Amino acid sequence: MDKALYIAMTGASATLQAQGTLSHNLANADTVGFKEVLANTESYPVRGRGYASRVAAMHVDQGFDDSVGAQRVTGNPLDVSLHPDRWLAVQAPDGREAYTRAGNLSLTPNGQLVTAGGRPVLDQRGNPIALPPHQALEIGNDGTISIVPLGQGADTLAEVGRLRVVEAPRERLQRGLDGLMRNGDPAQPLPQAAGTVLTTGVLEDSNVDAAGALVQMIQLQRQFEMQVKVIQRGDDNAQAANTLLRLGG
């Protein structure tokens, strides 16, 4: 009977973890550039002495859904939507390079280009981007940043930098606890993406299907309740068996 209890317990634990993943996705259903976190369960044999007859459930992190979210036109020159497999390089809290698809950029009072989360955006050399005073700004489809300097005519564009946009398939990236992506193999730096890499004046919305996530949440809740009932019934059966043994003794 203890085998059934442990198996049901591991299943309930995996279900709770899956619910946590879904809650995280729902909380970011309106976050620009957010990629849905994927989770699943798989069976694994319980090793140890005796016959290998027990199989438990284990929560598995399957990475993220890299499908492109809906495109929303804003007209803001600091809003960029990255093309598939293209990621914007930013400076992580530890000072290292990380990646995001959140293209709602802004300028600080001192001219530093940052994400909505306040992370400095990096140029193609890996340095934080700081722009001089200007009266107009334009980000090209290849990531180049041009400005019209103060006091100059509207036809005077000066190129002042280029966004570091890397080409990275899903299997090369790992999500950190801060929501930023990292290179899964630091020994092989991600290359600067060539050609057209983004669209200006457009934002990519989260690719989370909120309605589908709510349905999954209900299914997981029912699944968890069933697993708890199995644990309760197993405990009841064990107590009844112990009572019979005492009476028989």
Automatic annotation (TrEMBL):
Q: Where is the Flagellar hook protein FlgE/F/G-like D1 domain?
A: 87-146
| A single BP term in Gene Ontology | bacterial-type flagellum-dependent swarming motility
Q: Which residues cross the membrane?
A: none
Q: Where is the Flagellar basal-body/hook protein C-terminal domain?
A: 200-244
Q: From which source organism is this entry?
A: Pseudoxanthomonas taiwanensis
Question: Start and end of every Flagellar basal body rod protein N-terminal domain?
Answer: 5-35
Description of how the protein assembles with itself and partners = The basal body constitutes a major portion of the flagellar organelle and consists of five rings (E,L,P,S, and M) mounted on a central rod. The rod consists of about 26 subunits of FlgG in the distal portion, and FlgB, FlgC and FlgF are thought to build up the proximal portion of the rod with about 6 subunits each.
Name the chain's protein.
Flagellar basal-body rod protein FlgF
Compartments reported by the entry: Bacterial flagellum basal body
